[in-house]
Amino acid sequence: MNKKLFFLLVVLMSLSLIGIIFVQGYWIKSTVDDREEQFSYNAKQVLLNVADEIQNQELESYWFRFDSIDQSNSSLNGITLTEYFSSGRDNIKNEFQFQAEAILEEDYKISSGFLSSGEDSILFTKLINKRVTNIVKNSLENKSLTAEEQIERMVRMKDVEKESLRRLIADVTSKLPVHTRVSKETIKKLIQAELEKRDIKTGFEYAVFSNSIATNLHSEDFSLDHAATYGVPLFVDGNGKSNYRLLVNFVGKKEVVLSSVIIMASLSIIFTLIIVIAYSSALSQLIKQRQISQIKTDFINNMTHEFKTPIATINLALDSIKNPKIINDREKVSRYLKMIRDENKRMHAQVENVLRISKLEKNELDLKKERLQLHDLIEDAVTHVELIVEDRGGYIQTHFAALKSSILANEDHFTNVIVNILDNAVKYSPDEPKIDIYTENVKDKIILKIRDQGAGMSKIVQKRIFEKFYREHTGNIHNVKGHGLGLAYARQIIEDHHGDIYVDSEKGKGSTFIIKLPLIS
């Protein structure tokens, strides 16, 4: 895939994913905001209804108390209907008047402690009887009503005139302490009832404040600084003013708001995470495929170069042998035949490396292990490369500090591992190869270190040096032979021997390959 096209696809997919996440986040936030707004509306309605109910209960309480104290002025029970409706028109005052028990009602004063003063009681009684007078006036104008129906209309007067009575009672009760007008239990029960009516499941704390000063009407854990605090005026007078406010903390607001969206939000988050994980995995696979494609390209290029030389050498040797001047020269024929055999072995070795890796990955490689001395394996491996090292003017030195070197290993494959590492040390030494081999015992393990003074490698290369087919990318320069198989093969064999291998290297200062293997007693 073209590099620019690949980059464009990654950018577009990333922007799309970010857009999806943004839209999901915006939707969740908008939903939560809507739920909070709805909760606030419901909370206000709850408090308004509670405040109205408290005021209505106070009105009804005063009404029934007045009704029970003064039967002659407020209640019609037990009064003769004929006498009660024996009324006439006062032309001077321009109003109708009624008589009860043949006595004209003139004194309305209540001799009780119901209101704060006698004057208040007189005003209250006059207001009631004024309304009764008006009803009687209407009844006289409508002769079709019976006495019983007229009385029923007077009893219903309580609902019709409730607002007027409320104003009068508010003027009187405003002088009383708030705790005598309503109790904690009443406030709590009314709030609970309203919450249940609206199906709002939340705890609450409440308090009544007078001109921003706390009263003794409050629950134990009320906090004025709580985030979910709502308030409404309490005991509003006829002018719409009030000295009291009912404040409520809805302590479960967050749970109520989130409970309505938590399922959809959770599903949205889960699906978004799945998309993110799938996208990340797909992107990772794309990058790996690009890397594998690059590695395969490098492998084919290197394989072509490495096979090209031996094939060319073999062809030249065969052409030389065919030459009549050389075919009779046994020495030259023998030399050319040796070249053909060596080049053939070289190509065969590369093919074997590929097959070994394939068998290792399929667990088809039969590794028969036996008790061996690691020092002996090292000495044997050194003999395979020491002539090449000497020919280039370098050296291989061993420093065996380990007192115990018995391991359980396959002789052929483990020798190949050490040979591959030594071969890399020789190939990647620009000057004469200088190789030192160390061993030491650490607890129940033996540690083998193979150190060279070659070209070294970067940190990025060190992380991938043991991957199959991986080689440091050098473009079309093939100054170092190989297919990136030797170290991958070495790691597979060492891991099968329950060991570890890693590298410590610095660019331009050489590399040290470290192998840890378990000892056997």
From TrEMBL:
It comes from the Bacteria. Keywords: Kinase, Membrane, Phosphoprotein, Transferase, Transmembrane, Transmembrane helix, Two-component regulatory system. It catalyses: ATP + protein L-histidine = ADP + protein N-phospho-L-histidine. InterPro entries: HATPase_C_sf, HATPase_dom, His_kinase_dom, HisK_dim/P_dom, HisK_dim/P_sf, Sensor_HK_Regulatory, Sig_transdc_His_kin-like_C. This is histidine kinase. SUPFAM superfamilies: ATPase domain of HSP90 chaperone/DNA topoisomerase II/histidine kinase, Homodimeric domain of signal transducing histidine kinase. The keyword Disulfide bond does not apply. The chain crosses the membrane at residues 6-28, 256-279. One of its GO terms (molecular function) is kinase activity. Gene3D superfamilies: 1.10.287.130, Histidine kinase-like ATPase, C-terminal domain (3.30.565.10). SMART domains: HATPase_c (SM00387), HisKA (SM00388). PROSITE patterns: HIS_KIN. Its EC number is 2.7.13.3. Residues 302-521 form the Histidine kinase domain.
